[in-house]
Design a protein that fits this description.
148 residues, mainly alpha, Arc Repressor Mutant, subunit A, two-stranded antiparallel ribbon, 6 helices, 2 strands, 9% strand
């Protein structure tokens, strides 16, 4: 199956991966979460080709993850802002940082801290009903008949 076919599969993981799962998209989002909104600074930070960045920004805008907003009239220039749908991806980014810090780097390149108390943010799996912390062994999946 090709990457562009994932959006048609009845699977939440496949459809999410169709939006964020290519080589550059999460890195583009990382820059936007860091406060970069404009094309040039994102391109410079990532060392990404202009055509690739333009395609990723267009895709994220089409998906409703980012919105393109004019910030200058002459000439017309745009910046990219997270939408509520885009903001909902922040826990995914933090989970990737947690996993990378634990398994991929010797010294974490970034430290996250809660502005309120200085504590370290963590992404954890919890039960919405009883608030127990869960592992995969605590979770039972029930699949729709047409699920992939």
């Amino acid at each position: 199956m090709r990457h562009d076919e994932l959006a048609d599969v009845n699977c939440s993981v496949a459809r999410t991966w169709a939006v964020v799962g290519d080589r550059w998209t999460m890195l583009v989002l990382r820059e936007v979460f860091r406060g970069q909104r404009r094309f040039e600074p994102i391109a410079e930070r990532l060392g990404i080709g202009r055509n690739v960045l333009a395609a990723r920004l267009r895709s994220l805008t089409d998906e409703g993850v980012l919105e393109r907003v004019a910030y200058d009239d002459v000439p017309v220039r745009h910046e990219y802002r997270l939408t509520p749908k885009g903001e909902d991806l922040y826990p995914l980014l933090v989970a990737l940082i947690q996993w990378g810090d634990a398994h991929q780097v010797d010294t974490p390149p970034v430290t996250l801290a809660h502005r309120g108390c200085g504590g370290t943010p963590e992404v954890r799996l919890r039960c919405a009903e009883c608030d127990d912390e869960l592992t995969r062994r605590d979770v039972e999946a029930t699949f729709a008949s047409d699920a992939w």
